[in-house]
Amino acid sequence: MPTARRRRRLPDEVRTAVVRAMLCLAFTLVGIVLAALSSYADSWLMTPALMAMGLGVFGTMWCLLEILISRQVAAQRTRAPNSAHPMAGSRAPGASAPAPDPRPYPSQARPAQPQPWAPQPQPQPWAPQPQSPPRAPQPQRPGAAPPPHPGGPAPRQAGATTR
Which stretches of the chain score pLDDT less than 50? Predict the structure, then answer.
């Protein structure tokens, strides 16, 4: 006799999204019933009931999208990186990841080139920064505009007009 497979429990964020969607759907259905009954009675409640129904439809659609998105996020969390199949390389929900190797580079003494994901040393704000040598002034071409003044606006060009 084959044993029945147990369904895995939904992740918490998916379950909360489903509960929220059910509450929105219930609110929308109450608004629909209230709008129908108030239309039969020619009551003043018809306008607020229609507005509540419209908001409920919008909220229900929003919650359904939230369910889809949270399911995708939860599935990506359990799937292996760069894997198309949902369960390829996955771990059981309670399983922990294997312990990292304490050696920085187990296969070689030093890497040939720095890896882009490796942390790069950051300059410390309190550490003295190396001073660059002063740059020699560049010779100017004849007819080129002079460099702007450091303390004020640039000099006006000959023939320039302002509006």
Answer: none
